[in-house]
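Changelog note: in this version the structure field was regenerated for every chain. One regenerated record is shown below for reference.
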Amino acid sequence: MTRWPLPAPMQRALQLAAQAAGEGEVPVGAVVVRAGRIVGEGRNAPRALHDPTAHAEIMAIRQAAAHLGSERLGGCELWVTLEPCPMCAGAIIHARLDRLYYAAPDPKGGAVAHGARLFDQPGCLHRPEVYCGMGESESVGLLRTFFMERR
């Protein structure tokens, strides 16, 4: 358990992840922040929307881009409860997000510190600053509970 208060964006991402779990979706939540204000948020919804691209990060990026009126999200940061997959890491690159904060690593499906490590590839068009671990125990707890209930 975290010994200090989590930053508000990660708290909100964890709330969104819990909502996703309550809807039968894998518990992942994400928020896009600009100048300390949430400008986009999302939670996993591929089953509900019948859309394999409806990952939390994609939903948050889409909402932020619409809110800000631009496909480029410079000056923004993404807070997410799980290490982004290759699709979401690619969206982070194309959105030109300045920073990525993720709670839990994903050795099987992640593409930031694991797997493809997209930001480390020579052809990567943009590399955000990456910070991991804030809210890890909370995120892992949500994921473990979710998958234990389904086994």
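Spot check on this record: The mean pLDDT is 96. DSSP finds five helices and five strands in the chain.
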